[in-house]
Design goal:
With 338 residues, the chain is an alpha/beta fold. The chain has 11 helices and 11 strands.
Length: 338
């Protein structure tokens, strides 16, 4: 907190922070981080749970007593939305879409009507909204905040109807809903996140690590698809950075500077676990495995080479810019979990 205090009057004291939808992986990371810094944390959740921070019930659809907790706070970070780690049936696509759009519009409506609204509102987003671009060799070009966004709208169709381009569509509409809300006294920041890697059960890191330790952690698909990632510590530190820098707003890519092809990503993870080899998983095997695991193959096979240009230009320094070092740190923390 001392480093924050040196940057901004906003961060020179314990902050009041509310995390709508903060009961998931990223919410747990941020809540723990802020709690350790001495800030007052409130998580808005559909199912209150036992935690060292305050939890308050909300349904993400309607205003209620929870709105009182947004009055006069310093930071609101909306993380609401049904998990994309599921089979993308029409019903699930609709739930994924509506849970993000509706909760964002609701929070914006509430903030716009407060006498003393939050100083900054950050909204979750994802780096998958960019249009994939290849060079002459067929290699992904880096995508920063100024890169073209995937255009996937079909006139007259429901926004969740196009399965192939659904992920980009939901993120694009999510951000549109966020920035369209009228909150003139609240700074807005969109967090276009890559995969957040945490040494905790049920996370992407846990799934990949289990594959590696079972001897199944080889190249996935053709191995050329880029993996954009960010260490949980850098995710939390980047949020701190944006809270402190009151002159910064708009979209920011939350991704380490060194996205890399899946082949290299998995090799570094095997090295960190001291597992020399891993069986490769062709695209067909990924598709079959996804059915058994009730998830979507594109979560592994989709290529994304996001780079954090705006964070770097603003002076943010990553503790884990390189995947090899990040993987070794995460494995060490996994092995030493209490």
């Amino acid at each position: 907190m001392e480093a924050l205090a040196a940057l901004s009057p906003l961060a020179a004291k314990p902050l009041r922070i509310v995390l709508p939808g903060g009961s998931g992986q990223v919410g747990q990371v941020l809540a723990s981080h802020f709690q350790e810094q001495g800030h007052h944390v409130t998580v808005l959740t559909r199912g209150p749970y036992t935690a060292p921070w305050q939890t308050v019930h909300w349904d993400g659809l309607t205003a209620g007593p929870w709105t009182e907790y947004l009055e006069g706070i310093d930071v609101c970070i909306n993380l609401s939305g049904r998990s994309i780690n599921c089979r993308h049936t029409a019903a699930n696509r609709r739930a994924i879409y509506e849970s993000r759009i509706q909760s964002t519009q609701l929070i914006g409506s509430v903030i716009g009507g407060l006498a003393n609204p939050p100083k900054v509102w950050m909204n979750a987003s994802a780096a998958t909204l960019y249009k994939r671009t290849l060079d002459a060799r067929g290699i992904d070009l880096p995508l920063d905040e100024n890169s073209a966004v995937e255009e996937s709208a079909i006139a007259g169709a429901e926004p969740w109807s196009n399965r192939r381009s659904f992920t980009a569509r939901v993120v694009r509409d999510w951000e549109t809903a966020f920035f369209a809300t009228d909150t003139p006294r609240t700074r807005k920041v969109s967090l276009r996140s890559a995969v957040v890697l945490s040494p905790a059960s049920g996370t992407a890191f846990a799934v990949l690590s289990n594959l590696v330790r079972a001897g199944l952690g080889g190249t996935q698909g053709n191995g050329r698809q880029f993996v954009s990632w960010i260490h949980e510590a850098d995710y939390a530190r980047a949020v701190d950075f944006l809270v402190a820098h009151e002159e910064l707003d708009g979209p920011f890519n939350f991704a380490a500077p060194s996205s890399l092809p899946n082949r290299e990503f998995m090799a570094a993870l095997r090295y960190a676990w001291d597992v020399p080899n891993g069986l490769p998983a062709p695209s067909l095997a990924i598709g079959l495995g996804a059915i058994l695991m009730r998830t979507e193959p594109e979560l592994v096979l989709q290529s994304c080479r996001a780079v954090p240009s705006r964070l770097l230009q603003a002076g943010f320094k990553f503790d884990f810019p390189d995947w090899h070092e990040a993987a070794e740190d995460l494995v060490h923390k996994w092995k030493n979990r209490v």
